[in-house]
Amino acid sequence: MKKTAVIIQARMGSKRLPGKIMKKILNKPMIEYVVERLSKSNFISDIIVATSNDPNNMGLIKFLESKGINYYVGDEEDVLARYYLAAKKFKVKNIVRITADCPLVDPQIVDNTISKYFEDTVDYTSNIFPRSFPKGLDTEVFSFNALERAYFESTKNYDREHVTSYMRESKKFNISNYSFKEDHSGVRLTVDWKEDFILIDKIFNFFKPNIFFSWLEVISIMDNDPKLLEINQHLS
Q: What is the pLDDT of residues 173-182, one digit of tens each?
């Protein structure tokens, strides 16, 4: 497990909410929360941000350099290549895939998914097929060998953009899923739209100064205040 690194997919060019990963919550950019919360994982050895060569990402790159965060700059559209070359550069044997628009990523979910990946002795494990956790807690774990095979074998633009779809859909890989006992898949804790950001901002403000609250604590406050759910529940 100590040879497992997380690669965070990050770029500034979001069409729905441009520059969202650097939008500030409590005076810190959103991506900083992703990195800090992932740092609490017991099984992750390195944290790497994989961004692209789009000039819009220069502000992000300068921020990563100022914080001493490892990063890789690759192709904007071919995200699969970006992951493969980042993993190759940093000599990663097992990869956790996280996206930078998930500031509530939960280190315990990450560790549990990593554990299941090793216990099942598979090429790929996630917590989203089928989904039982809220959107925004997505965690995928896969081997470098699986990533390399996908990189060389997949030819569809969809697979190059979505990184892991070839592993799941080609039927050439052994895969497994980590599920929760209850279904919370209808809850949105990711940031795609302005309403999502408003909700996440309210959550961090509720728990401040603590930024390491668990996802179940978030579910608890949403159960107690249904108006929070209404902020973004109309979005898909």
A: 999 999 999 9
